[in-house]
Specification:
The strands form 3 sheets. Strands 1-2-15-3-4-13-14 form a 7-stranded antiparallel β-sheet. A 5-stranded antiparallel β-sheet has the order 7-6-5-12-11, with helices on one face. A 3-stranded antiparallel β-sheet has the order 8-10-9. By secondary structure, it is α+β, with helices and mostly antiparallel strands. A hairpin with a 2-residue loop joins strand 11 and strand 12. It is globular. The protein folds into 2 domains: 39 residues; 143 residues, Ribbon (Umud Fragment, subunit A), CATH 2.10.109.
Length: 239
């Protein structure tokens, strides 16, 4: 009889300890966030553009810290200083570090001879029938705010992943065939089109940054490599 009465009390005690542990953990997280913000080691940003979709969504948010090491493949936040574009804090993926050799062939990025895109989920431009736009919006592939310019033969240009394109039977990935004057102005003889650049050896203390939404990102293909001193944090969470 006594033993059966003891079980509820024991269960209540376990639940109380769990709640206290969760509360303590939450308090530590909040404390760490406050300290990080006060000391400047933690940054919080809202994302207004689709340049890194599908990984970082337009309208989303992210945390970054200057205590984290800049590594190949990580997203970084940095001060954009090229006077041709808006001076603001931009976010892109560090595809190549100082001393790396980067080249882009048919829209794929290779670093030191290895396919750096093979482990990434990226958006590219595809031609879709205009009549498919409503369906793509209903399925959440497109939003009202998405830029879908017209293409040849009653088609529009949409940004989506390779798997989404295959799912919808879209095989025409749009590749930049024309010479891009902005890219050539930056890279000279090393550039032919946006999808065909390099090889480029990244200079000392600099980074080659590219957005995951490859046809909607203004990045090192346009502004050149970025000095490490302009980086204000490495992204460690986004939502």
């Amino acid at each position: 009889m006594n033993a059966s009465k003891a079980r509820p009390a024991s269960s209540f005690g376990w639940l109380l300890k769990l709640m206290m542990a969760i509360g303590l953990l939450f308090g530590l997280v909040v404390f760490a966030l406050i300290v990080g913000r006060v000391t400047g080691h933690l940054q919080f940003f809202s994302i207004p553009t689709p340049g890194n979709e599908p990984t970082i969504l337009s309208g989303g948010h992210l945390f970054a810290s200057d205590l984290l090491k800049i590594e190949r493949g990580r997203f970084v936040c940095y001060h954009q200083t090229d006077p041709r574009y808006e001076r603001a804090i931009w976010v892109q993926r560090a595809m190549a570090l100082a001393g790396d050799t980067l080249h882009i062939r048919n829209g794929r990025v290779f670093v030191n001879g290895k396919d750096a895109d093979s482990c990434l989920t990226l958006n590219h431009a595809y031609a879709a029938p205009l009549a498919m736009r409503t369906r793509l919006m209903h399925e959440g592939v497109l939003r009202d705010s998405d830029f879908t310019p017209p293409f040849h033969n009653d088609s529009i240009i949409v940004q989506m992943t390779g798997s989404q394109a295959r799912e919808h039977g879209l095989q025409h990935r749009i590749r930049r065939q024309e010479l891009d004057t902005m890219v050539i102005a930056m890279w000279g003889r090393e550039a032919r089109t946006l999808d065909d650049l390099g090889p480029v050896i990244v200079p000392q203390d600099r980074l080659f940054l590219i957005g995951d939404n490859r046809d909607m990102s203004i990045d090192s293909r346009f502004i050149g490599t970025v000095h490490r001193s302009n980086v204000i944090g490495v992204v460690f969470a986004n939502f």
